[in-house]
């Protein structure tokens, strides 16, 4: 082997080493990006589930509010006739 061939082989080996190092760096970057993408997807699913739960809780809240309105209306409907007939004098007379 001549000195020139050895230098050429040495340069090729150096180039291969550099390519290998860059490939390893790119593989690490790829794994990191994939991990971030998976994490983002998981967060998206969690947010969608949270939104669904919030909507269900809002519906349940409105159902309870309506139930309380109905109870209040029923109490008023029952108490007006009783108070106007004097059944509860401590509350006074409530006009019908």
TrEMBL record:
Q: Which InterPro entries match?
A: Znf-C4H2 (IPR018482)
Pfam hit, one: zf-C4H2
One GO cellular component term: nucleus
Q: What processes in GO biological process is this protein linked to?
A: positive regulation of neuron differentiation
The organism's place on the tree of life at top rank: Eukaryota
- Official protein name in the record: Jg21423 protein
Q: Tell me which species this is from.
A: Pararge aegeria aegeria
């Amino acid at each position: 082997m001549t000195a020139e061939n050895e230098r050429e082989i040495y340069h090729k080996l150096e180039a291969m080493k550099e390519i290998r190092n860059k490939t390893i760096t790119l593989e690490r970057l790829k794994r990191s990006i994939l991990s971030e993408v998976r994490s983002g997807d998981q967060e998206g699913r969690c947010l969608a589930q949270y939104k669904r739960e919030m909507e269900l809780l809002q519906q349940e809240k409105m159902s309870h509010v309506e139930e309380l309105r109905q109870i209040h209306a029923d109490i008023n409907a029952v108490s007006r006739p009783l108070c106007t007939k004097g059944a509860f004098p401590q509350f006074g007379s409530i006009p019908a």
